[in-house]
Write a structure and sequence with these properties.
Blueprint lengths: L1 E6 L6 H24 L6 E5 L9 E7 L7 H14 L2 E8 L2 E9 L7 H8 L2
Antiparallel strand pairs: 1-3, 1-4, 2-3, 4-5
Helix pairs in contact: 1-2
Length: 123
């Protein structure tokens, strides 16, 4: 199953958008480091932040998973980013090049739990 985790960039107030834009380079660096470290696992970077409007941004990763244990590292990464940068995250699966969200976690939603996310994904 191909899953994705994104930083929630939509429905932000003005203060949240400003903070996200200020932290974009650091967030991108953290995601790039994770992708580089997991290149053998076919982890790819999702970086669609060309617009001036945060609402249209897509920033995160995608990776194949076969077992729920494979979710531990990416969920932990996004939990740490959520704590550090006061963001929320979206997780879901990709089917026929379409992203289908299954759960949200982070600053507002609370920490993500890999076991529960695996259940939502049907792993």
């Amino acid at each position: 199953m191909l899953i994705y985790l994104l930083i929630a960039c939509d429905r932000l107030d003005e203060k949240q958008e400003k903070k996200l834009k200020q932290n974009l380079s650091e967030l991108l660096a953290a995601l790039t480091a994770y992708v580089d470290a997991n290149e053998a696992n076919d982890v790819t970077l999702i970086n669609e932040c060309d617009s001036d409007d945060c609402e249209q941004w897509q920033l995160g990763i995608s990776q194949p998973v076969k077992k729920n244990i494979h979710l531990n590292f990416p969920v932990n990464l996004f939990n740490s980013l959520a704590r550090k940068y006061d963001i929320d995250c979206e997780v879901g699966y990709i089917e026929d090049d379409t992203r289908e969200p299954v759960s949200y976690f982070g600053k507002q939603e609370g920490a993500g739990e890999a076991f529960l996310i695996a259940e939502y994904l049907g792993l």
